[in-house]
Amino acid sequence: MIIWVNGTFGAGKSSACRELTALLPGSVLYDPEPVGAALAAMLPRDLTAGITDYQDLPSWRLLVPEVAAALLAEVPGPLVVPMTLLRQEYRDEIFGALAARRIPVHHVLLHADETILRARIESRAADPAHPARGEETRRWSLDHLAAYQQALPWLTADAETIDTATLTPRAVAERIAALVRRGTAQRRIVQTPEPTADTVASAVLLFDEQDRVLLVDPVYKPGWEFPGGVVERGEAPTLAGVREVAEELGITLDRSALRLLVTDWEPHTGPRQGGIRLVYDGGRLDAEGRSRLRLPADELRSWRFVTLSEAEELLPPGRVLRLAAALRARRRGQALTLEAGVPVGERAAEAVEG
Fold first, then answer.
1. What is the pairing mode between strands 336-339 and 342-343?
2. What average pLDDT is seen over the chain?
3. Does the pLDDT value for residue 271 go beyond 70?
4. Hey, which residues does 160 pair with through a beta bridge?
5. What are the distances in angstroms from CA 100 to CA 15, 167, 198?
6. Nearest-angstrom CA–CA distance, 88 and 320
7. How far apart are CA 87 and CA 341, in angstroms?
8. Of 183, 222, 204, which Cα lies nearest the Cα of 87?
9. Contact status, residue 9 vs residue 141, Cβ threshold 8 Å
10. 117, exposed or middle or buried, with CB in 10 Å at 0-12, 13-18, 19+?
11. Rg of the Cα trace of the chain?
12. What's the whole-number mean pLDDT along residues 239-258?
């Protein structure tokens, strides 16, 4: 089990987590910050140039769940993690990877009004012996308050919030422990183990009256996606597409009405497995159909219809190429075969025309 204690600087995470480990037998404090420090020391300077926060390192976000799993193999747990996470896509990436390892995550936010946070930061940053270091800590902490305020809407929606303004660290720890015992802070996240080999996956594009395409926002990984998923063993690709749409959106499509738009080979990159990606036209979803959309809370956060240009801000580059090709195939009435997003036998530039 992971107890992730979130909150900005001055919220009281470190002191409360130390108290929490005393309350929970077998618990261990897991601070992911040294993971970032180790990476910064090992990675070439050209890879870390311009990065001011180690959380922006993809390797840090990959290693944090791996280290957690390794620690839980050695200790009875739970792991108590005092770590600020202000970017929702980083939360999704890390919590999703923990869920894929069957590790439950309890998410708690320690909060206080900005005036209280500023007062705490000013008092704690004071270091008479090392004034320069104290000033750097103070400036760093204060600079993050604006980002914290911007993140509050999604933080308070995702985590159980404890106002620490008038509470001692022990009292905060007791409240966290009570939340964990009741299970109210546990985030229900779909468990999607990382594939160990290349896969076949079916995606279904649904359109509105303006020919915008439907995207969904998963809670278990960063970024947006097409509705769909991996074809299971012995399952027909069209059946997989219909099944995934039913599971993700709560609507039933006519399997025989699906029309293949794109077959794309996705290369193996980094920790991601590749494979064959099939994209189908699922037709229009009118107002009545949209009213029936029901998202599983442990898998998807929201949905929206987007244009291709809007999708470029939400999808990784490979999926943008795939979507552009699918829209092109839909206009032409002829399916396309792609490799890494590029139509076979055509110039890459033609893949994203119009």
1. antiparallel
2. 90
3. no
4. 108
5. 30, 35, 17
6. 21
7. 28
8. 222
9. yes
10. buried
11. 23
12. 95
Share of the chain above pLDDT 70, in %: 92
Q: In this structure, which long-range contacts are made by residues 88-93, counting pairs with CB atoms below 8 Å and at least 24 apart in sequence? A: 88/151, 88/154, 88/158, 89/222, 89/223, 90/55, 90/61, 90/222, 91/158, 92/218, 92/219, 92/220, 92/221, 92/222, 93/61, 93/221, 93/222
Secondary structure element (H or E) that encloses residue 262, with its range: strand 259-266
Look at residue 257 and tell me whether its pLDDT is greater than 50. Answer: yes
Region of 77 on the Ramachandran plot (φ > 0 left; ψ -120 to 50 alpha; else beta): left
What amino acid is encoded at 170 in this protein? R
Q: Which residues of 129-165 are buried (b: 16+ CB within 10 A; e: fewer)?
A: eeeeeeeebbeebbebbeebeebeeebeebbbbbebe
User: What is the average pLDDT across 150-171?
Assistant: 95
Cis peptide before 78 (omega within 30 of 0): yes
pLDDT digits (tens, 9 = 90+) for 279-330: 999 999 999 999 999 999 999 999 999 999 999 999 999 999 999 999 999 9
Provide the token pair at 324.
Answer: 């552009």
Which residue matches tokens 């009741």? 182
Q: How many residues does the chain have?
A: 354
For tokens 């897991």, the residue is 30
Token pair 């490799």 is at which residue?
339
- Tokens read off for 6: 């979130």
Residue ranges of E strands in 23-142:
28-29, 79-82, 105-111
pTM: 0.83
Cα distance between residue 229 and residue 314, in whole Å: 18
Q: What is the pLDDT of residues 175-203, one digit of tens each?
A: 999 999 999 999 988 877 666 678 899 99
